[in-house]
Amino acid sequence: MVAAFAGFWAARQLDRESPRLASGTWLPVPQAITPFTLTGADGRPFTLADLRGAPTLVFFGFTHCPDVCPTTLLQLAQVRRQADVPGLRVLFVSVDPQRDTPALLAAYLHAFDRSFLGATGDMAQLAAVQKDFGVAVSRVELPGGDYTMDHSATVFLLDAGARRVAVFSPPFDTAAFSADLRSAAPWLKRGGTAGSS
């Protein structure tokens, strides 16, 4: 009887320590992000410190993407509004530094939501960030000398401590995604763990 109660109590404690997501996966342990330096859409350095202080959704893509990126960014704009999570930001990291200048990123992102953040960098800088997030990227040559970029379409959720706490994979259901963010809000502002400061 005592063992059964202890098991029940432990299960209840675990339930309290992480939100249940309908459209994503909450990570068992928050994952620290390796420090980095990129260039923001405003032309200034963008570092890990810029991700601290508020929850952030991070998506990797490129401005010449014909379908996945614009569709995802439109959905993230809807999710940001519907979730109503204080301070929630969206960061779009370009995987195409050859074409995506900071100015182009700014103009592109403002078409979806003027609050969206953008970042780019040189190939080495981006490769390090992509590796840290586990994002696969490959350049695909097209007829006529043009090219496109194949890349992972996962959206990463960071807590206010700039740690990965959840991942969302397409297809995205904006209503479920928004509800998940609302339910996770207490963990996001507390740095990812219930009860922590």
Structure description:
The protein is α+β, with helices and mostly antiparallel strands. It has one domain (2-189): Glutaredoxin. It has helices at 2-17, 68-83, 102-110, 123-133, 174-189; strands spanning 25-32, 37-40, 45-47, 56-61, 89-94, 117-120, 137-141, 147-151, 155-158, 163-168. The chain has an eight-stranded mixed beta sheet with strand order 1-10-9-4-5-6-2-3, sandwiched between helices. It has a two-stranded antiparallel sheet with strand order 7-8. Strand 2 and strand 3 (45-47) form a beta hairpin.
Please write out the topology.
Elements: H1 2-17, E1 25-32, E2 37-40, E3 45-47, E4 56-61, H2 68-83, E5 89-94, H3 102-110, E6 117-120, H4 123-133, E7 137-141, E8 147-151, E9 155-158, E10 163-168, H5 174-189
Parallel strand pairs: 4-5, 5-6
Antiparallel strand pairs: 1-10, 2-3, 2-6, 4-9, 7-8, 9-10
Helix pairs in contact: 2-5
Question: Key features?
Answer:
about 200 residues, alpha+beta, Glutaredoxin, 8-stranded mixed sheet, two-stranded antiparallel ribbon, disordered N terminus
